Predict the structure.
Amino acid sequence: MSAEPIRVLVTGAAGQIAYSLLYSIAKGDVFGKDQPIILILLDIPPMLPVLDGVVMELQDCALPLLKEVIPTDKVEVAFKDIDAAILVGSMPRKEGMERKDLLKANVAIFKTQGAALDKYAKKTVKVLVVGNPANTNCLIASKSAPSIPKENFSCLTRLDHNRACSQVAMRCGVSSDQVKNVIIWGNHSSTQYPDVHHAKVNLQGAETEAYQAIKDDAWLRGDFISTVQQRGAAVIKARKLSSAMSAAKAICDHMRDIWFGTKEGEFVSMGVYASGNSYNIPEDLIYSFPVQIKNSTWKVVDGLPINDFSRAKMDATAAELVEERDTALDFLSQ
């Protein structure tokens, strides 16, 4: 007797991140190898012909776990009784567009999607916001869905986390699974703070502090941080398109960890509600913290010692988020 299928929504489903993502979900890489799936694909009306092509390809993959694929441009269809929502679709920043204009457009989108979650989704739904500005979009969606617990909302900083992890691994000449507990603090923007003060590297079987393993504090406090902060822009410059393969992989990692939990003694980064945190981060924000996950419930890793260098960077990205939030809430109340 196979399990009941779960309903998984992906928005922006005709876009390039989704194109890299949908196969992994449908194959069982995210929700488990014996979990049947109904995939619901939402996009805007002009993208429906493209979406039909994506549906054909999913059918042609002949994947045993994929029970049904539902393409739609209607929120009442898309959000109905869903177990998981991966909100990839957002208004991208166009040439010459002010950040404020971008925020305004996205507040409208995520207000609508939050309201649809509130009205149609299961109250247990887990919501991952990927579309940028992800932290603030996530906050708006949550505020627009008061009947769904705030803890069910998170935004993607796992891509930044994976980038940081990989940079450390390459520097130490080890594979990335030998590095653990890097942290991304704050906003998924260039103010984010990639922190390796608590990271460990496995060198020839011995667990070593990252700062000891790398032995180059100048790099760790300089180029390492800016490389991770600017990596998205570097990919766009090279490919003329934004990170899709790596973003999709990070989405899979994030959702799989929510579903199955993190390993003992390890933590990952995700943007979550800051309320009740022990790091003096303003409460009403979605801020990226180190978290551990058990029984589909995340908990911020408390009590990590924070030095002055880290403190300044954690506060700077919090300040940006407060400003974004206040601007967005102005638009929301209009």
